[in-house]
Design a protein that fits this description.
This protein has two helices and no strands.
């Protein structure tokens, strides 16, 4: 089984910058309203899971305290 060696073409930094700018022009960017709405959804989901995790942590901490205090009596 022969393995092919692929040589990478060396490009100058300016060629890479031009290509990157050309690709960025092809991107369909979302509207500001869409970005704000999506950001609001992300923040809401993060806050929801923060509340859930803090609740679970508090519950487990309370149960741990019950177990450790119960063992020392």
């Amino acid at each position: 089984m022969a393995q092919q060696v692929v040589k990478k073409e060396r490009k100058s930094i300016w060629t890479r910058i031009r290509e990157t700018i050309g690709e960025l022009k092809k991107v369909s960017w979302p509207s500001f309203k869409t970005v704000v709405k999506s950001t609001g959804i992300v923040i809401a989901v993060v806050l929801f899971f923060l509340i859930v995790l803090v609740g679970v942590d508090s519950l487990l901490g309370y149960l741990y305290e019950l177990l450790t205090k119960g063992l020392h009596r």
